[in-house]
Design brief:
Blueprint: H1 2-7, H2 22-31, H3 37-51, E1 58-62, H4 73-83, E2 84-94, H5 97-107, H6 110-126, H7 134-140, H8 150-159, E3 162-170, E4 173-180, E5 194-200, E6 206-212, H9 223-230, H10 246-253, H11 262-266, E7 271-273, H12 280-283, H13 288-294, E8 300-302, H14 305-308, H15 313-329, H16 331-347
Parallel strand pairs: 1-2, 7-8
Antiparallel strand pairs: 2-4, 3-4, 5-6
Length: 354
């Protein structure tokens, strides 16, 4: 699993133990010790001790079991949030989906590994999340062994009111140190193929954009975290965005993920050509002048940056400024001209979404 410890935690912050509470320093020191009976007993006793503190008073919590073995993960993380003081630390560990896949491909020939892993994927990752199969899965599985992709657990932590301050492998288990920053989110989450994303629309009003799912569940909560550690590449997208699934990359490449946005067009919230519907985090990166200019128009499915082939954030803002100023003077003529320029860029120059 050595390569996983290099690849999975890319663009992840490393925790500064120098200023950490002494209890947390001791926990990490013991966690790095060779596995054995003494280490296991110490960690189990330490977890029990941290959870014995009354609600709202704990400075540090260590998960009593790895998250794969916990049936209601969000409920567990919410309870952890309740237990902790503001800025208190939660330490969790889990087996990643990448590790699970590596185990199959290191043990079996490739053709057999592909077949076995696909069935394991359906059983341990799909069945626990679908309403039709969830009860059957838990009925058949005596011990919970759900499999989580790394972005899903990180996203669940943010959803439940934590910020991730460090993540890394300790031995072959992925460990995350998170800090309580706020109350858990209240919105209900689901695993369907279509997702609703909160975006800034005309006049600065927030609305839900519909898209086909291209990211792991809960990964949309990681936007600020990924931005802080990955920065942006050309086109205004995140560099090495590990939140996007393999299937999601295919959908994005051929623009298929954006087809459900026709719902927003029919509802009058968007139009065919226009500035991109931005999340609040992305919107905050724009200059105040461009922010005010772009909310004078409805966002669109086909953004002007594909006509201008702009790359950096500054260039994208300049492209949107030119579009908005032209649109406010001549709406139909501007959208007609940009539509054909964008279509040419997509069809002839093979421009695709990232």
């Amino acid at each position: 699993m050595e390569y996983l410890s290099r690849e999975e935690p890319q663009h992840a912050p490393k925790f500064d133990l120098v200023n950490a509470p002494l209890e947390l320093q001791e926990l990490i020191r013991v966690a790095y010790m060779p596995r054995g009976e003494e280490r296991s007993k110490w960690l189990n006793d330490f977890a029990a001790k941290t959870w014995s503190v009354p609600d709202g008073e704990a400075e540090l919590l260590f998960a009593e079991d790895h998250l794969n073995a916990i049936r209601y993960v969000n409920r567990y993380l919410r309870k952890s949030n309740e237990k902790l003081k503001q800025n208190g630390y939660l330490v969790v560990a889990f087996d990643t989906a990448a590790k699970r896949r590596a185990q199959f491909f290191s043990k079996y020939p490739r053709f057999l590994a592909e077949f076995l892993y696909f069935n394991d994927f359906l059983w341990h990752r799909v069945c626990p999340k679908l309403a039709l199969t969830r009860r059957f899965y838990y009925f058949c599985t005596k011990k919970v062994r759900k499999v989580f992709p790394r972005p899903e657990i990180l996203g669940r932590l943010y959803y439940c009111g934590f910020d991730v301050v460090s993540e890394q492998y300790i031995h072959d288990r992925y460990c995350v140190i998170a800090q309580k920053r706020r109350h858990p989110a209240e919105e209900h989450r689901h695993y369907g193929p279509i997702v609703k994303l909160n975006r800034v629309g005309k006049n600065g009003e927030l609305f839900w954009v519909y898209k086909f799912r291209t990211m792991y569940a809960y990964a949309d909560y990681l936007q600020t975290y990924v931005y802080e550690n990955n920065k942006l590449q050309e086109g205004g997208k995140f560099k090495d965005d590990y939140r996007v699934t393999t299937w999601g990359r295919f959908l994005r490449k051929f623009w298929l993920d954006e087809l459900p946005m026709f719902i927003n067009v029919f509802k009058g919230q968007m139009k065919i050509v226009g500035v991109r519907p931005l999340s609040q985090q992305y919107y905050s990166l724009y200059s105040p002048e461009i922010q005010q200019l772009r909310i004078k128009t409805k966002p669109g499915m086909l953004p002007p940056l594909y006509a201008d082939e702009m790359g950096t954030l500054e260039q994208i803002q300049e492209s949107e400024r030119r579009y908005c100023e032209a649109y406010l003077k001549h709406p139909f003529r501007t959208d007609w001209k940009y539509f054909w320029k964008i279509l040419s860029s997509i069809v002839i120059k093979r421009k695709h979404s990232n």
